[in-house]
Amino acid sequence: MERLEVLKTYKLYIGGAFPRTESGRYYTPVNGKERLGNICLASRKDLRNAVVAARKAQPGWAGRTAYNRSQILYRIAEMLETRKAQFIDELEQQGSTKAAAKKEVIASVDRLIHYAGWCDKYQQIFSSVNPVASAHFNFSVLEPTGVVYAMASDDSALLGIVSIMAPVIAGGNSLILLAPEDRPLSAITLGEVIHASDVPGGVVNVLTGKKEELIGHAADHMDINAIAYCGDSAGVKKDLEERSVGNMKRIRIYDEDWKVAKAQGPYMIQDFCEVKTTWHPIERISSAGSSY
How far is residue 9's CA from residue 154's CA, in Å, rounded to a whole number? Predict the structure, then answer.
């Protein structure tokens, strides 16, 4: 008697838990003749749940010290390194050669460490003391944008995900990540790594499904502060820019080769930060010794 194949069900990752989609829908991507698994088709309700979780977690995450965020990103890199064989196997299932898969996993680990190193340094690069013509100190510093929705690159099943996730959370934001539709396995497995690391629940949320089903809901959602689109579709860019006008959402477009060194750096962190300027009066000392 022929045995029925038991495929793994890859669930969503929302608020530090792994729920099934509330819609009950799923799809089965195929590589050649091999079925990759049962993948949840996230719905508008799933997106809204992820936004609620991300908003709740963001202030606490932003309140962590930069050094602590650095430690946690490094911890993710450590855990990805220890599960390297699993990620290589999944990348091969999704069409990569063994050599390319190994190279992509190593590059992903290195990229996490790169941003771990920047967590407590980017403020020194982008912040400033501004000259003003009054008796004040004037400081400009970066603050997190808030909740970021990111559509990962279809061309990279792991490195593209890490390359957009790391700078977003390094800057104190929370993230809702939509995995590549045809190659989603690495995103959910990365969610398992994040779940077992020191990242608080809700800081990173992973959805799977169809970009065209969720893009409008994300662009219209009033509690998403920024959207990162990794791709080159002129139609998607136009749709995002037009629909974000009503709520002043920040749109970032990345059509990058994530394998090159210039696809990383502190400017990616800056892309998801706002500049806050603070004025503070200068206390003067009179000749009599009193302050005024």
Answer: 21
